[in-house]
Amino acid sequence: MTGKSKWDAARHVSVAHARTLEPKPVRDSQSEITQMVLPNDGNPMGNILGGMVMHQVDIVAAIAAGRHSGSYVVTASMDHMDFRVPIRVGEIIILRASVNRAFKTSMEVGVKVYREGVYNRTSEHTSSAYLTFVAVDDDGNPREVPPVITETDDEKRRFREAGQRRERRLADSAAKKNKLNQREKRGVR
Ligand SMILES: CC(C)(COP(=O)(O)OP(=O)(O)OC[C@H]1O[C@@H](n2cnc3c(N)ncnc32)[C@H](O)[C@@H]1OP(=O)(O)O)[C@@H](O)C(=O)NCCC(=O)NCCS
Questions:
Q1: Secondary element (H or E) of residue 135
Q2: Is the CB of 71 under 6 A from ligand 1?
Q3: What is the DSSP string of 43-92?
Q4: What does the radius of gyration of the chain's CA atoms come to, in whole angstroms?
Q5: The ligand 1 atom nearest the CA atom of 166
Q6: Which residue's CA is the nearest one to ligand 1's atom 11?
Q7: Residue 182, ligand 1, Cβ within 6 A
Q8: Residues 6 or more apart from 119 whose CB is under 8 A from it?
Q9: Residue 139, Cβ neighbours under 10 Å: how many?
Q10: What angle do CA 152, 153, 158 make, to 5 degrees?
Q11: What is the pTM of this model?
């Protein structure tokens, strides 16, 4: 087959339409996934696997970052994650993502995970995670993203704290790179 399919063309048109560097409110890109935990998602004790939760966290966060930036995005990093409460097979898992802050080409996205009973509808916060996504062009090169507009007190706090986390993240990443370079120079595998 030669040339681009109609799906390729539609994809490029919709991305081109969505792309603007105008500041956007956090609420415009907030994203949510709700799913039932099925037996295939679980460990032998009947709790969802941590890796399954991380997979869904990555997806819901990528949706929020993609909506905010109007671009394809790649995960640059995911911060530490604790699983405080198990989510059982047969329960509902809910993941909510918001872009906390946009920098030049990267965005910090916060995700909160909840479990919900099927019949009693009580929900409980089980984990949180912060991820950094980078918006990329068709060649995979980083591209600029619009700033976020924070409206609520929580959004303003998350925006402030995202700046502090970014400083720590970049310092950690630079220290790791440095260590790897030194090991390579010494020929350590
Ligand atoms: C993420 C990626 C695009 C960064 O590319 P790069 O050439 O290092 O680009 P730069 O150094 O210019 O950094 C681009 C942005 O990413 C941020 N960044 C890079 N590494 C990061 C990290 N480990 N954690 C957080 N942010 C990071 C930079 O701070 C910069 O943000 P800013 O423009 O808002 O200031 C590139 O490393 C990549 O493609 N990685 C693979 C991503 C991927 O495939 N993920 C899926 C799982 S494998």
A1: strand 123-136
A2: no
A3: -TTSBB-HHHHHHHHHHHHHHHHHHHHTSEEEEEEE------S--BTTSE
A4: 19
A5: 25
A6: 142
A7: no
A8: none
A9: 6
A10: 100
A11: 0.90
Model confidence over 50-102: pLDDT tens digits? 999 999 999 999 999 999 999 999 999 999 999 999 999 999 999 999 999 99
CA proximity to 100, closest of 74, 122, 128, 121: 128
Q: Pick the residue whose CA is nearest to atom 17 on ligand 1.
A: 106
- Paired residues of 72 in beta bridges: 136
The answer, yes or no, to whether any atom of ligand 1 lies below 6 A from the CB of 77, is yes
What is the token pair recorded at 178? 């440095």
Q: Residue of the nearest CA to atom 46 in ligand 1?
A: 75
Q: What is the 3-state secondary structure (H, E, C) of 12-35?
A: HHHHHHHCCCCCEEHHHCCEEEEE
**Residue 5 has which token pair?**
């399919």
130 within 8 A of 165, measured Cβ to Cβ = yes
CATH code that applies to domain 10-186? 3.10.129.10
- Residues with Cβ within 8 Å of 133's Cβ and at least 6 positions away in sequence, in order, are 61, 62, 65, 69, 73, 74, 75, 76, 106, 107, 109
